[in-house]
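note to self — DONT lose this again. spent like an hour looking for the file last time. sequence + predicted structure for the chain T wanted, 330 res
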Amino acid sequence: MNENRSVTVAVDAVGGDFAPSEILLGVSQAISADSALRVMLVGPDDVVTPFAASAGDRVIPVVASEIIAMDEHPAQAVRAKKDSSIVVGCRLVKERRADAFFSAGSTGAAMAAATLVMGRIKGVSRPAIATVIPTGGHPVVLLDVGANADCKPEYLVQFAQMGIVYSRAVLGVDSPRVGLLNIGEEPTKGSLLAIEAHGLMAESVRGFIGNVEGRDLPTGVADVVVTDGFTGNVALKLLEGTSKSILGLVKSAMTATVLSSLAAAVLKPALIRMKDQLDPDAFGGAPLLGVDGVCIIGHGSSSATAVKNALRVAATSVRHDLAARIGEAV
């Protein structure tokens, strides 16, 4: 990887619950952290132009007159709003004016625009949303987490191939272990989709270790875990909710009494490290793997830290030629 390679990321300035303030703050933090990063900030003139003027020549304003709301039908909105920040951002990548695109707006719209405007990598049947699950050891790539509710067994094979490339390129895992999410370890367990996918993956996916169960996701048993988008999304939301609940319970317990508050003061550094390990903001966003370019989809509640880290992941993906390597893998 050429760490000094200049990278330009198109950023949706008005996507997300805390836009534009957290998006702009995250952009500022990202360009401060990476001297070879440039941003094409896409959105309304009164948002992007003043910020670019104050940020310096590494932030370029791109005016987009429309915004796709969270409650709009994704594909219909993408087709109808050609001058929306999401569509314009994807078009910048398609035209090779930008190397990558990031949005914390409508996930469905970002996915539809990336697929329709940027296009799929040749040979990819279905793009998949991958997310990184923090663990005590190596982080785990889980895909698909929402792009494809209904899948064919051969799709899961491609998801595995794309997940391996991402794990190697962005997370630095030399030989990723690949698991298939299922309800049991035996090859004959699970749905017809899982049984057929197991057979195909055993034949063609290097590093395949077999089925893994939901309880294995946070343990790092596998570096890449593959499933259909419906199951993956449910698993991801359950993990996020459980993590948030546990951290809340720990905080309540540590502040319940004077004695526990004193103990909390002693344990505070360790608790902060634990929180940081479990914080999804550390990875910033979920890549849409399989589109012809780099597209990072942020959580709707993305903070400035999440935005900064999403742009770091986008730049790393570009510097590792992620799309080209996925094309070679599939």
